[in-house]
Amino acid sequence: MRQAKIDRVTAETEIHLKLELDGRGENRVETGCGFLDHMLTLFASHGRFDLDLVCRGDLEVDAHHTTEDVGIALGQAFGSALGDMRGVTRYGFMILPMDEALILAAVDLSGRGVLGFDLPVPAEKVGVLGFDLPVPAKQVGSFDTELVKEFFLAFTREAKIALHLKELAGENSHHIIEGAFKATARALRQAVKIDPDAAGEIPSTKGVLV
User: Fold this and answer.
1) What is d(CA 76, CA 53) in angstroms, rounded to the nearest whole number?
2) β 50-57/13-20 pair status
């Protein structure tokens, strides 16, 4: 079973995460940030990854630490679950339409953390910061769209994968970001699959993915 469990505790966040790569998309995501919960739920569902994630972060500050640290923990979980990546397909890509938005995601389980990010988002903020915060905090708090890049930077670095995200079309900020999470999940779903023709080989002429 390709699975991992990550417990990450800092002065800013406390994260407990379980991941199963060969799952059915079953998930429980509780970060305190409604928009991030929505994106990660979509990520698990479209990737067919079973994900149990609880994060308690300093949302009274903003969603930066929560978003980045969740990216770190999720990336660590992917890296751990993949192991030496023996037998994986390695590459995956998706061009995904989300209404007027069209997003390309391409993944290489390369063993090297690289992010190509060309995802212009018109709005500076989307969504509500957290449903469990007092009403005044909800009213002033929202999700900074610049955190999308921070999430994917942390995720790719820790998972040691190359991910390219490119916006081919888009006007609505929510649709653009949602398309990026869905496209990434579906590209990863292809890449992590076991290749029946690989006979357990590491998919690199070097004999190692690093």
Assistant:
1) 13
2) antiparallel
Kindly provide the b/e burial profile for residues 40-62, where b requires at least 16 CB atoms within 10 angstroms of the residue's own CB: bbbbbbbbbbbbbbebebebeeb
CA distances from 6 to 51, 69, 76, 162 (A): 11, 12, 7, 21
Q: How is residue 97 written in tokens?
A: 């339409």
Could you list the pLDDT tens digit for every one of the 210 residues in the chain? 899 999 999 999 999 999 999 999 999 999 999 899 999 999 999 999 999 999 999 988 889 999 999 999 999 999 999 988 888 999 999 999 999 999 999 999 999 999 999 999 999 998 754 455 554 444 444 799 999 999 999 999 999 999 999 999 999 999 999 999 999 999 999 999 998 887 776 655 465 656
Asked whether the beta carbons of 92 and 187 are under 8 A apart, the reply is yes
Q: Copy the structure tokens of residue 113.
A: 């953390």
Alpha-carbon span 102 to 119, nearest angstrom: 11
**What structural domains and CATH numbers belong to the chain?**
3-192 (3.30.230.40)
Using the 8-state DSSP alphabet, how is residue 65 labeled? H
Residue type at 120 in one-letter notation: P
